[in-house]
From TrEMBL:
<dbReference type="InterPro" id="IPR003795">
    <property type="entry name" value="DUF192"/>
</dbReference>
<keyword id="KW-0732">Signal</keyword>
<feature type="signal peptide">
    <location>
        <begin position="1"/>
        <end position="21"/>
    </location>
</feature>
<protein>
    <submittedName>
        <fullName>DUF192 domain-containing protein</fullName>
    </submittedName>
</protein>
<dbReference type="Pfam" id="PF02643">
    <property type="entry name" value="DUF192"/>
</dbReference>
<dbReference type="InterPro" id="IPR038695">
    <property type="entry name" value="Saro_0823-like_sf"/>
</dbReference>
Length: 151
């Protein structure tokens, strides 16, 4: 009887593993694009669907300095981000349609503190915390890349 209960418990646990593993795994295979920030080139993953944007950089333990994630929204809006289940300290750059950085926000790992754009934007670029500051890139700077439209 005990082994039957143990087998049932193991089977129930294994049935949950794919769902838990799927929810707790970092997104590593999203589409990518190249961006520029002044003389610096960035290789960024694109979070374009609601599910991709919801997971974002959660569960990632490391990220190369020249990489980041660009969140792409269908229409401009005030975008707010938090860091639940995000292990890396990040800086969010809230970016207008033409690639201009509207504002920057340093975000603390595993925090529910909300960080919002100062005005409606369609893009949010997350990079390792300190990346923008070390390169002197501030609000008003313009990012380049074919994804940004110019009016």
């Amino acid at each position: 009887m005990r082994s039957l209960l143990l087998a049932a418990a193991v089977a129930a646990g294994l049935a949950q593993v794919p769902a838990m593993a799927q929810g707790a795994a970092p997104q590593m295979n999203l589409s990518r694009t190249d961006l520029t920030a002044g003389m610096f080139r960035l290789d960024v993953q694109l979070a374009q669907t609601p599910q991709q944007r919801e997971i974002g950089l959660m569960f990632r333990k490391e990220m190369p300095q020249q990489e980041g994630m660009l969140f792409v929204f269908e229409t401009p809006g005030v975008q707010c981000f938090w860091m639940r289940n995000t292990l890396l300290p990040l800086t969010a750059a809230f970016v207008a349609d033409d690639g201009t950085i509207v504002n920057l926000a340093d975000m603390k790992p595993q925090s529910d503190d909300s960080h919002c754009s100062a005005r409606p934007v369609r893009y949010v670029l997350e990079m390792n915390q300190g990346w923008f500051a070390k390169r002197g890139i501030k609000a008003g700077a313009k990012l380049g890349g074919k994804i940004f439209s110019t009016p």
